[in-house]
Amino acid sequence: MDKIIVPIDFSQYSEYALETAAILAKRNNADLLVLHMLELDQGSLISSGEDQNQQMVFYLKLAEQKFDEYLNKDFLKGVSVTPIVKHFKVFSEVAKVAEEHNADMIVMGSHGASGLSEIFVGSNTEKVVRYSEIPVLVVKQKPDKLDFDIVAFASDFSKEMIEPYIKARHLFSNLKLIHVNVPGEGFKSSSEIEKTVASFLQTADGNLDKLNDVHYASDYTVEKGILNASNLLGADLIAVPTHGRKGLAHFFSGSVSEDVANHATLPVITFKI
């Protein structure tokens, strides 16, 4: 891992993400690209008037000044940090910045869900997850040691899950795999699940060494099954594949990856299918 992007809005949750990224950067000798989106209206961006240009320069300088103050943190000492200010209004543009800089991961903070209020869904973090081609790590709390000793990877063990699984395995050697069986059309018998899992591992790993690391859960929804199984495993991180913006059905059914990232108290990392 060489480059990590951290989009910030100067909030407390951005600071959680920044500190998390700093820990990862130190462990991997990686550079941090700290990105702030200068949310100017479209008129300001396309206008050639002198007043509008001066206004844009003023806000740009103000953001740079605030950036310098924000990045003056002890946990960033010894880390290579490059501040980036962009004029984009929408956070979907973070994916473009990641591609331009050949970044390996995006780390973002999120409020998550509070009661019945879905803060993550429709938020900037959700947009980044949906558009990103690289893994997105979503954090909601101040990091402690950030030891990902147990990483729970949720999968239905279909062929399209092989690539995300290999990417996750490359980052984390200690994966525990979760299969959730739910009532309804997607229900499978124990023998059907075991046959599917064995075929998946044989194709992805070339062996069945991780067969004992597969954990089966039955629940009313895939999301609840993933969260409950992760808690039982004592997981430090949940990994989920996502289709993102490709127009296909979301992972499993509905928007499971977004729901898990929304409701989990644990950090969640997403991998594009």
UniProtKB/TrEMBL annotation:
Q: Which Gene3D superfamilies match?
A: HUPs
Matching CDD domains:
USP-like
Q: Which domain of life is it from?
A: Bacteria
Which SUPFAM superfamilies has this protein been placed in? Adenine nucleotide alpha hydrolases-like
The cross-references to InterPro entries, in alphabetical order and at most eight, read:
Rossmann-like_a/b/a_fold, Universal_stress_UspA, UspA
Stretches that traverse the bilayer: none
Q: Which residues form the UspA domain?
A: 2-140, 223-271
The similarity comment for this entry is: Belongs to the universal stress protein A family.
Q: Tell me the protein's name.
A: Universal stress protein
Q: Which source organism does the UniProt entry give? A: Psychroserpens burtonensis
